[in-house]
Design goal:
52% strand; 13-stranded mixed β-sheet; mainly beta; 19 strands; four-stranded antiparallel β-sheet; 2 domains
C-alpha cells in the first residue's frame, strides 16, 4: 500500500504499488547451559536434579517484515499490523527436582517440583503513527480551505461538499494527497517483548502392577504462577492461557493377546483467552472417560476399538464469571474401530 485515495463523501480506498520483497533483520545470541544430576539413595530410590536454560522462537508470522492493512481506510478506521523481525525468543530458566521409588517390578512412585522463569513474553501493542510515508488529503490545507469557505457561506461542511469543492464533482474520481498534506495516522499494532512470568508446581505419578496383567496408573499436576488473569480488570492485562491443574487415572489389563485400558482425565478451570473487549474467557473444569481395547490376532495383525468421552461430558466457557455463559459444547461420544499391520 503506497497511498490513500479519497473517492467521494466519506469513502476512501487504498492504492497499491508494485509488488516486491521486503527484508528485515534480527540478531541475538544466548548461552544455554544444561546440568543434570542423579543420586542413588538406595537400590530402588533415585533423586534427580536438573537445571537448564531454553529458548523458543516466536512464530514466523510474528517475525515477518511486512505490513498488513486490514479493513478499509475510512477516517477513524485506519489500521496496520506490522511484523517485528527483532523479536527476541522466549528465554526460560528451568529447575526440576524429582524423587523416584521403584518399589516393585513394574511399579513406581515419583514426586517432582518444577519451576520456570520465562522472559520475553510477547504482547501486542497499538500506537498511532504514520506508515510508509502515506499522506492524508482529507486533513490537508486544500480540504481545510474548502471547509472554511463552505462555513463562511453559512453552509455545513459535509464530506461530500468538501470533496465536491476539491474535485468539482461528488464522485467518480480519485483525489490523491500531495507532498503538502499531513501524514496519515494509523492504529499500528505490533508484537513486542515485554513481560516476564514465573511458573511453578509439582507432579505426583505412580504405577502399580497387580498379578495376572492388571494394573493402575495415576498422576496429578499442580500449576501455579504470577501470570493469572484478574476477572475484574478493565482493558488490557497480561496473563498466560491454558494454565491449570490436571489429573489422570487409568486401570488396565494386559496379556500377550489382549490390552484393555479405561482412563479418567480431568482438567481444572483455565483461561482460554480474551474476547474483543479484553475480557478474560475461561473454560470450566472438565472431565471425561475413555476406553481403549486391543486384540492381537498374531505378531503382525491387531484390531482395536477406542471410545472417547464415554459419558458425553460438555465443555462450558464463560466471560469473567460462570453466570456470563459464552458457549456450551456437547460433542457426544466418539467411537473408533480399526486395525494395524506390522511389516
Amino acid at each position: 500500500i503506497v497511498n490513500i485515495a479519497w473517492v467521494g463523501g466519506n469513502e476512501f480506498a487504498y492504492v497499491e504499488g508494485e509488488k516486491g520483497f521486503t527484508s528485515g533483520m534480527g540478531d541475538n545470541k544466548f548461552f544455554l547451559p544444561s546440568i543434570d544430576a542423579k543420586i542413588g539413595i538406595s537400590d530402588d530410590e533415585i533423586v534427580r536434579f536438573s537445571y537448564s536454560r531454553t529458548i523458543t522462537r516466536p512464530g514466523i508470522g510474528s517475525l515477518r517484515s511486512t505490513t498488513d492493512f486490514p479493513g478499509n481506510p475510512k477516517i477513524g478506521q485506519r489500521k496496520a499490523n506490522v511484523g517485528n523481525p527483532e523479536l527476541l525468543p522466549y528465554v526460560s530458566d528451568n529447575i526440576d527436582v524429582t524423587y523416584e521409588n521403584y518399589y516393585a517390578d513394574g511399579s513406581y512412585f515419583a514426586i517432582s517440583y518444577w519451576r520456570k522463569v520465562v522472559d520475553n513474553f510477547l504482547q501486542s501493542r497499538t500506537t498511532q503513527e504514520s506508515v510508509n510515508g502515506i499522506r492524508d488529503v482529507y486533513f490537508g490545507q486544500a480540504a481545510d480551505a474548502c471547509r472554511a469557505d463552505i462555513q463562511a457561506g453559512g453552509g455545513v461542511a459535509t464530506d461530500m461538499d468538501v470533496f465536491a469543492c476539491l474535485t468539482g464533482s461528488v464522485g467518480g474520481t480519485q483525489l490523491l494527497p500531495d507532498g503538502d498534506d499531513p501524514l496519515a495516522l494509523f492504529d499500528v499494532t505490533r508484537e513486542v517483548n515485554e513481560e516476564t512470568g514465573t511458573l511453578y508446581g509439582f507432579e505426583i505419578a505412580a504405577q502399580h502392577l497387580f498379578e495376572d496383567g492388571y494394573g493402575v496408573t495415576a498422576n496429578y499436576t499442580s500449576v501455579n504462577g504470577d501470570v493469572e488473569a484478574d476477572r475484574d480488570a478493565i482493558g488490557y492485562q497480561f496473563a498466560l492461557t491454558g494454565m491449570s491443574d490436571s489429573a489422570n487415572l487409568s486401570g488396565f489389563y494386559e496379556t500377550d493377546k489382549y490390552s484393555v485400558r479405561l482412563s479418567w482425565n480431568w482438567r481444572d478451570e483455565f483461561l482460554g483467552g480474551f474476547d474483543q473487549h479484553s475480557s478474560p474467557v475461561f473454560t470450566e473444569e472438565y472431565e471425561q472417560w475413555d476406553l481403549n481395547a486391543t486384540y492381537s490376532l498374531n505378531d503382525q495383525v491387531e484390531v482395536f476399538v477406542q471410545g472417547l468421552n464415554l459419558t458425553e461430558e460438555v465443555v462450558r466457557t464463560y466471560v469473567r464469571y460462570p453466570e456470563q455463559l459464552l458457549a456450551l459444547g456437547q460433542y457426544g461420544t466418539t467411537w473408533i474401530i480399526g486395525g494395524r499391520y506390522r511389516f
